[in-house]
Design goal:
This protein has two domains: 2-224, 3-Layer(aba) Sandwich (Rossmann fold); 234-333, RNA polymerase II/Efflux pump adaptor protein, barrel-sandwich hybrid domain (OB fold (Dihydrolipoamide Acetyltransferase, E2P)). α4 (110-118) runs antiparallel to α5 (134-147) and α5 (134-147) runs parallel beside α6. The protein has helices at residues 37-45, 75-78, 95-100, 110-118, 134-147, 164-180, 192-198, 216-221, 226-231, 327-333; strands at residues 2-9, 14-21, 26-30, 52-57, 60-65, 70-72, 80-83, 152-156, 185-189, 201-206, 209-214, 236-239, 249-252, 257-259, 268-279, 282-288, 294-299, 312-317, 322-323. Helix content is 25%, strand content 32%. By secondary structure, the chain is of the alpha+beta class. A six-stranded mixed beta sheet has the order 7-8-9-3-10-11, sandwiched between helices.
């Protein structure tokens, strides 16, 4: 078990996080840029000194700082694999030399060669980093981290500098390798789709606070607060009365709604098409609902047929989350 409990002061806020990553679990820490994600990772790795709290991996105390005790293991003693956005390869060493760096005698072991083969690097062992693509360089960095037999893997947005195709390929490769080696992994990202694709569980971090921690599907279906909902793509919060429901605000996510009336799937409302915008091979449709409320929904029709502005249309929310309305806001809105 990887336990991270910390308080790290920053210029605008203090990062306060308490999380556990189970053995063999890939935990994604997701949130906007500047939320404190990298601070958590760098503190866990020992790159930043712990201000207050505790970092424990299995039975090893990596760092502790409180009134009774102070302990700090340096980076090199923590046996943690660490990957960043830009792989820090040695330009004067070949792929083989980079992977073997830090191993006894600087020689690639049998396991190291198997890793190179598994990561598609076997034919590049004699090549220098400048001749590799960005994705290949990141594979070398991953192979080097794994060859050292780490107790856990820390990944700080390692694929964000890559194009979409390379990113998807490396995400799949990482997941496969992580599962085969049963590695405990903490992955930081501000790409929601990446967190959804990789994570066994994900934590939502915002301004230094861990707002919710659960499997991705659970967070998407049941965000704990409107702020979490916003961070995972919910665009609107409408009074239940618009959909014939009493009380609360219903969260609206463009990808968790359907055009048409399907009352067995969720609450339904009738509106008027205001705008139809091409997006990713289909259409994003904006509707005006009773009370002047507006929502956007992805159209299932690739040509947008029958969704002309001014036309009536139904919208169904797929089992939306319901949030309480603060009393003051309810009075102001006449709810």
């Amino acid at each position: 078990m990887f336990r991270i409990s910390l308080e790290q002061p920053r210029a605008r806020f203090t990062v306060r996080v308490d999380l556990e990553v189970a053995p063999g679990e890939l935990f994604c820490l997701f949130g906007p840029s500047g939320a404190g994600k990298s601070t958590v990772l760098r503190t866990a790795a020992g790159i930043e000194r712990l201000h207050r709290g505790r970092v424990v991996l299995d039975d090893a105390v990596l760092a502790v700082s409180d009134r009774q005790r102070r302990c700090f293991l340096p980076v090199w003693r923590r046996r943690l694999g660490y990957l960043e956005q830009h792989p820090r390869l040695f330009p004067h060493l070949t792929v083989e030399g980079n992977i073997a760096y830090g191993l006894p005698g600087g020689q690639l072991t049998k396991e190291g060669r198997r890793l190179a083969r598994e990561l598609g690097l076997e034919e590049f062992l004699g090549v220098y980093p400048h001749a590799l693509s960005g994705g290949q360089r990141q594979r070398v960095a991953l192979a080097r981290a794994l060859a050292a037999d780490p107790r856990a893997l820390l990944l700080d947005e390692p694929f964000s500098a890559l194009d979409e195709a390379a990113r998807g390929e490396l995400q799949e490769l990482l997941r496969r390798v992580q599962r085969r080696h049963r590695l405990t992994a903490l992955f930081v990202t501000h790409h929601l789709a990446e967190a959804q694709r990789l994570a066994d569980r994900m934590g939502i971090l915002d301004e230094g606070r861990l707002l919710q921690s659960a499997p991705p599907a659970e967070i998407m279906a049941r965000p704990a607060t409107p702020r979490v909902a916003r961070l995972v793509g919910y665009t609107d919060f409408l009074p239940g009365g618009v959909f014939g429901r009493s009380g609360g605000l219903l969260g609206v996510h463009p990808d968790r709604a359907l055009l048409g009336s399907f009352p067995h799937l969720g609450p339904v409302a009738e509106g008027v098409v205001e705008q139809r915008t091409p997006r990713e091979g289909t259409f994003r449709v904006r509707l005006r609902l009773p009370g002047g409320h507006r929502v956007s929904v992805a159209s299932p029709l690739p040509d947008g047929h029958g969704l002309t502005p001014g036309e009536a249309a139904w919208i169904t929310l797929l089992d939306p989350p319901v949030f309480p309305v603060p009393e003051s806001a309810a009075r102001a809105a006449g709810l």
